[in-house]
Design goal:
Elements: E1 2-4, E2 10-12, H1 18-35, H2 52-64, H3 84-94, H4 98-104
């Protein structure tokens, strides 16, 4: 599915079939409590209970504590460039159930 970007162009969004969405939700319930504590505190994207308002609050807090600049970045086509083998290797470091690793793969 193509979604128009405000800046022009489109973003391709893959919509998984129903069974894949059910499996993804089940994996999220298992993996989220394991992986979320390992993430950096200033990572807000794709995290349960965090959103744009939390990111803005963190920016305001940094500003109020004396920080004077901010950088915003968006790496084009980043997700397809992530080596899947490395993601699975790191996942094995925190999850020892090979069935879960297989589903993620």
């Amino acid at each position: 599915m193509e979604i128009p970007k405000p800046s022009g162009g489109v973003r391709i969004l893959g919509v998984p079939c129903l069974i894949d969405r059910v499996v993804e939700r089940a994996l999220l319930r298992v993996l989220d409590p394991v992986i979320d504590p390992l993430l950096m505190p200033w990572s807000f994207a794709y995290r349960r209970g965090l959103g744009a308002k939390d990111a803005l609050a963190a920016l305001a807090e940094a500003r109020d504590s004396g920080m004077s600049w901010v950088a915003r970045s968006d790496i084009e086509d980043y997700f397809p460039s992530i080596p899947q083998w490395e993601v699975l290797r790191r996942l094995r470091e925190v999850v020892d159930d090979e069935r879960v690793i297989h589903l993620v793969g």
